[in-house]
Automatic annotation (TrEMBL):
<keyword id="KW-0227">DNA damage</keyword>
<dbReference type="Pfam" id="PF02586">
    <property type="entry name" value="SRAP"/>
</dbReference>
<dbReference type="GO" id="GO:0003697">
    <property type="term" value="F:single-stranded DNA binding"/>
</dbReference>
<keyword id="KW-0645">Protease</keyword>
<dbReference type="GO" id="GO:0008233">
    <property type="term" value="F:peptidase activity"/>
</dbReference>
<keyword id="KW-0238">DNA-binding</keyword>
<dbReference type="GO" id="GO:0016829">
    <property type="term" value="F:lyase activity"/>
</dbReference>
<dbReference type="GO" id="GO:0006508">
    <property type="term" value="P:proteolysis"/>
</dbReference>
<dbReference type="InterPro" id="IPR003738">
    <property type="entry name" value="SRAP"/>
</dbReference>
<keyword id="KW-0378">Hydrolase</keyword>
<protein>
    <recommendedName>
        <fullName>Abasic site processing protein</fullName>
        <ecNumber>3.4.-.-</ecNumber>
    </recommendedName>
</protein>
<comment type="similarity">
    <text>Belongs to the SOS response-associated peptidase family.</text>
</comment>
<dbReference type="InterPro" id="IPR036590">
    <property type="entry name" value="SRAP-like"/>
</dbReference>
<keyword id="KW-0456">Lyase</keyword>
<keyword id="KW-0190">Covalent protein-DNA linkage</keyword>
<dbReference type="GO" id="GO:0106300">
    <property type="term" value="P:protein-DNA covalent cross-linking repair"/>
</dbReference>
Length: 242
């Protein structure tokens, strides 16, 4: 499971590196983003003229399908298991046609100890960002839902953009912290994962190759203070190693 992320670094730095053509994401330095918070997503999707464009956009963390009757469903869909994502009604449509990458600085997991839950932070070695495989959805908002989301950065012109992060069985030393990990991509895998011409079968094959080639040694981990366990806490001190 991946239920808390660190968005300390501005993903706009990736515009040139990942050939992003349009960005509507406005960065806010955050060290403790929970489900329901705003995250950046990188997607390849058509512009107003029908031309596929690579975009960096804001999304609400927690997938809300277009058919959802209650926006709160997203709080139960902030992760999608890679083993079942193709067949689960919640995710199968987005898996087939709306795949995204969520660039984050780091993520947190908790380990149970006799003294209580100990948080750990995981981040990439030699790179400022982790590229997490995800899915995105659009939800048309009615008047009541529009009032509920208010000024949410992920809502625009009566639509809510939402996203989920794919997870897989944890590998290597990451399994010592939690039995699940985000599906993490290399820079070279970003374009293949979000390719809008690839179907569900292609995406499933991609995941198989990705998980076989992934090296957990590319991710560092260290213990941080328990203050990160409270979503009201913010600031760089949350990411300081013990």
């Amino acid at each position: 499971m991946c239920g808390r992320i660190n968005m300390a670094l501005d993903p706009s730095d990736l515009v040139d590196e990942l050939d992003i053509e349009h960005s509507s994401y406005e960065h806010r330095e955050r060290y403790n983003v929970p489900p329901g918070g705003t995250v950046p997503i990188i997607v390849d999707r058509p512009d107003a003229d029908g031309l596929v464009q690579r975009r960096l956009e804001p999304a609400r963390w927690g997938l809300v399908p277009g058919w959802a009757k209650d926006l709160k469903i997203g709080f139960r869909a902030f992760n999608a298991r890679s083993e079942t994502v193709r067949t689960k009604p919640m995710f199968r449509s987005a898996f087939a046609r709306q795949r995204a990458v969520i660039p984050v600085h780091a993520y947190y997991e908790w380990v149970k100890t006799p003294e209580g839950k100990q948080p750990w932070m995981m981040h990439a070695i030699g790179h400022d960002h982790l590229f997490m495989a995800g899915l995105f959805e659009f939800k048309k908002l009615d008047e009541e839902e529009s009032r509920a989301v208010g000024t949410d950065a992920a809502a625009s012109s009566g639509w809510l953009v939402s996203a989920t992060i794919l997870t897989a069985e944890a590998q290597g030393h990451l399994a010592e912290v939690h039995d699940r990990m985000p599906v993490m991509l290399s820079r070279d895998e970003v374009g293949e994962w979000i390719d809008p011409t690839a179907d569900a079968g292609d995406a499933e094959e991609f995941l198989s190759r990705n998980l076989t080639s992934f090296d957990a040694r590319s991710i560092d981990r260290y213990r941080v203070g328990t203050a990160v366990g409270n979503v009201r806490n913010e600031g760089p001190e949350l990411a300081q190693p013990l």
